[in-house]
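Got a spare moment? Tell me how you read both lines of this record:
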Amino acid sequence: MQIYRHALLLVQNETDGLLLLEQAERLAKEMGTRITVGHLSADYRELDYTSDSLTKDRQSREVIDAKAMLSRLVESSSIDISVRSIVSIHRFRDVEAVVQHEDIDLVMLGHKNRLFGVFSSFSFEFINHLSVDVLIKHIPAP
């Protein structure tokens, strides 16, 4: 079995975050894996060709909400966790840069079954775009 030194959990919300943290806590306790929990937000600035304050307000709100969610997840955990907020329009390139820069050897993501989920899931796309192992955890429907 592979021993992972540093795992990055890319969470969308608290529902998948709690399930991924549960899995990550086992890794941390059994293997001594360092855990970083992160959130990927769209970078609207690269799409903003005019000075659109509504776009900037929306992006600011999303980043603030994501950081608040990450803080709640960290508080709920029994292990030490680092936090990483990634704001990007090029998600695969920028996540790969974080993977390389922070010496991450496992990326964990959630996936929900939904209509056309196989065709539209970002989680599955990470498998083909990252240079490290990717673990995709099923997130059951509420």
